[in-house]
Amino acid sequence: MRLPKKFSFASPLKINCGNRALSHLPIELSAVNAYAPLLLADRDQVGNKRISTVIDAFKTSGLTLGIYDRLPDQPQPDLMPVLARMYRDGGCDSIIAVGSGSVVDSAKCLNLMVSAGDHGKSDDSGRNLTDPGRLRPLMLVATGGGNGDEVTGYANDGVRRLCSPRLVPRVAFIDPTMMGDRDDRDLVDGALIALVHAVESFLDDSAGPMCRAYAHTAIGLIVKHLPAVLRKTDREKNLCAVVNGQVAAGCAFFGSSPGICHALAAGLKEGTDLPLGFLMAILLPHLVSEAGFVQPERVGELLYPMVGADIFAVTAEDLKTPRTIALFWEFFDALNTELSMKIPSSIGGAGLTDERIKRVQSRLASNSIDDHVARILEGARHGASTIDH
Hints:
Largest sheet: 6 strands, parallel
Strand order of the largest sheet: 1-8-5-4-2-3
Mean pLDDT: 89
Shape: globular
Helix content: 40-55%
Structural class: alpha/beta
Oligomer: single chain
Number of strands: 8
C-alpha cells in the first residue's frame, strides 16, 4: 500500500453493533456522565414499535428519558428553539437520535444550539469556521434508509450545510431489531450514496490507510448484502450489514475530500426527479474507468472487497479494473431486477438535457479536473457501451 506524504484520520465515533446492542445505550450514556437524555425521532419514519424498543432499553437503567417523536421529514429552523426550550426545561443533558436523514440533522443542530449557542460562522462551502467547543453527548440509533451522513460532522439546518468534527455522534448503535420496513427505493438510494462515497474515499490521493480500511469495508458490505435485502432474503440480517456498511462509508467520507461523483450528482439532481443515489450510481463506473487510466493499481484494489481474497489474488493486474467496472454494472442490474424504479444506464435515460449537463460541467471547471469531468459526463451520457479499458 502506497502512503501519501501527509495524511490524517480522526473518527471519534464508537460503533456498537449486533444483537442487543441497544441494551448498551444506558451504559454508554452513564460512561459520559449523562443521565437525562432527550430522544428525538420521526414516528412516521421508524414506527411506534421501534421507538418503544429504544424506550425499553431504559426500563431498569434509572435514567430519566425525555421524548419528542414528531420531527418533520425536513429540518425546520423554527422548530429548533422549541426543542432547545424542551431540552433545558426538562433538565436534559444528552441527545439520542433514532433514525436517519433529517432526524439526525435536527439532533446535531439542537446539540449545537444547547451546547454552544447559535453563533457559529460558516464559509461558502458550509464548513464551520468557529470551533463550537465541547458539545453534549449525542447517541445515534441507526435504522435503514440512511446514507452514512448520519455519522459525519455534516448537518443541514434547513438553510445551510454545517460542518464540524464536534457534530459527529459519540456512539452509533446498530441493532437488528431497529432495521424496520423502509421503502426499497429509499433503502437503495441511501446505500448507493454511501457506496459511491466509499469508492471516492478509497480513490482519494490524500486518504490514508485507515480511511481506506473503512471504505474497503463499506464497499464489501453494501455490494454483497443490498441485493439480498431487496430479495427479502434474511432481510433483517442483510439490512443490518448494509447499515454497517453505510456507517463505515460515512467515517471514510468525512475523513476524505468530497469527490467528483458527489459534486456532479448534486448539480444534476436539480434537473431530474431521480434519487441522488441513482444519479451517483450512473456516474460511478465512468469515474472508476477514468481513474483507472490515472492510478490503475489503486483502482484495481477495488476488486478485493467485491470478490474476496482468493479471486483477487488470481486475477491478472490488467484485468482488475475492467472486472471491477463490470461487477458494478452487474450489481446495478441485480438491484434493477427487484426495483420498480430502475437505475438508468445513462444520464440521458434520467431525462437530463444537454443544457443541464453542460451547466453542471461548467460549475466544476478547473484546469486540474476539467478533462476528467468531461470524459466522465460524456461516458455517462451514453452508458455502459462507452467504457473501454
